[in-house]
Structures are given as structure tokens and as C-alpha cells.
Amino acid sequence: MKQFWPNRVAAFALVIVFVVIAGCSHESEKGAAVPTPKPVVFDHQHPGLAKVLAKVSDGFGMVDYGLLKKDPAELEAYLNLVATVPHSQFDGWTRPRRMAFLLNVYNATTLKLLADHHPVVSIKEIGGLRSVWHLNVARLFGEKISLKFLEDELIRKQFNSPAVHFALVCGSRGCPVLRGEPYTADKLEDQFAEQAREFLRNPKKNYVDVESKTVFLSPIFSWFEDDFGKTDAEVITMVARYFKAPERKALAKGGFTIEYTQFDWGVNGPGEK
Prior knowledge:
By secondary structure, this protein is mostly helical. It folds into two domains: 47-200, no CATH class; 207-260, no CATH class. It contains twelve helices and five strands. It has helices spanning 5-31, 47-56, 65-70, 73-83, 87-91, 95-116, 147-159, 188-200, 220-223, 225-228, 232-240, 245-252; strands at residues 136-140, 143-146, 207-209, 214-217, 257-260. The strands form two sheets. A three-stranded mixed β-sheet has the order 3-4-5. A hairpin with a 4-residue loop joins strand 3 (207-209) and strand 4.
């Protein structure tokens, strides 16, 4: 019995030390203050992105990715800035400011992605076996996220607006065109309307065949069908306002069905297809 006593004392001492250490660790973890991110000075006219777009966009949707690859400093500075905006600061902005911010981040990240991989025939070449939209290439609120997460979780779920699909640019000719200016809260509704008109009036992407009573729409309306309407009639009513007067008049009579056009995945750069 005596020969085991020292072992028991030692074991008991180890237990006490472990408990004390664990307790101290717990108290330290519990009492540690989590630093609150400081707000950053942010200009909601997005001047950094405006400079980039003025330099590399032709105003009609084509982008000079070669030039952007040679001189990426301004785009990188803009992306570095938006990455520093704390979530708490973002949450305090108005809805139009939050929407414009995320749309610009999405489009700017896409520009960077294509410039980094220039030249490519299609954005779908990037990412290898993994879809390019699942790569964690966007930086927001202290995290790296994918373009898909940015679009689905942060933009579509938060704003529930079909208009965002006329503003998001996937770096392909089949997408809506890249504006020559950033999205800004003070002009957002007008910018959405202009984007929708330009997109729906482009016969390579959308058109109305009055004789066959068919509306041919971009596959975007199929990929995100829940965002545009529950039925074909609802979708047609939504898009009709953006077509020219003759098409609007024909569509108002009803009886039209929807078919989808072929999407052009060629990069939206001059001479790159």
C-alpha cells in the first residue's frame, strides 16, 4: 500500500495542475476582447473603379484585358480597398449603396480574374476541373469567397431583384455589357433600366418573333427563372417594358411562348473570339 502512495500523490498533483491550467486558459479565452474593425473612408462614387473602366472599357461592353494585365495597379488598389470595409460598416449603408458596392465588387473581381489569365478564349477555361465560379477569388469582410457565393448568397438573397442580372458581368459576350462607369446609389435605378434595355434589345441575345408568337430570351432567364417570374406570362410581362414599342405592342396582346437563344461564352474582349 505504501509503495503506491507517492504515485497517487504525483497523479493527484498532475490533476490539480491540469485543472488550474485549463481554468486559466478558459478565463483567458473568455475575457479576450475581440477587436471591432474600424470603419474605412469609402467614396460611394467608386472613383478607383471608375478610372479602371475609363481605361480598359470601350463603353460598348468590350474590355482590353491585355492592357489591364500590363497595368493592374489601379484595379488591385480598388479591390484592396473594398476588402477592408468591415461588415458592420457595410450593414449601416442604405440598400442602394450596399447593392452598388456588391455589384461593383463582383464585376471588378471578374475583370481581375480574366486579366490574370489573359489570354483565354472563354472564362470557363479558368479553374480546371473546378468551376471558375466556385474559386475563392473575391475578398470581402475578412474572407475569401467565390463569385457564386457573392452572387447567390450576398446579392440575390439580400436584394431579391431581377435587375441585378442586367448588371452582373461574367466576362462573356453573352452577358449584359460592362458599363463604362461603376454602379452608384444615386443613379442605380437609371443604370438598371439602361442595362435592361441594352440587353433585351440586342437581337443576338433576345428578340421577339411576332409571326411565331415566340419570345427568344437569353439562357440567363432560364438559369435564374425564379428571379424573373413563376410563369412564362409573368416573365414576358416583366421583360416587355424594355423592348421597343412594336414588340411591346405585340406582347401586350398575349399568347406568346418563350424559347432560349444560344449563349456566347466568348470573352468580352476585342479580337478574343
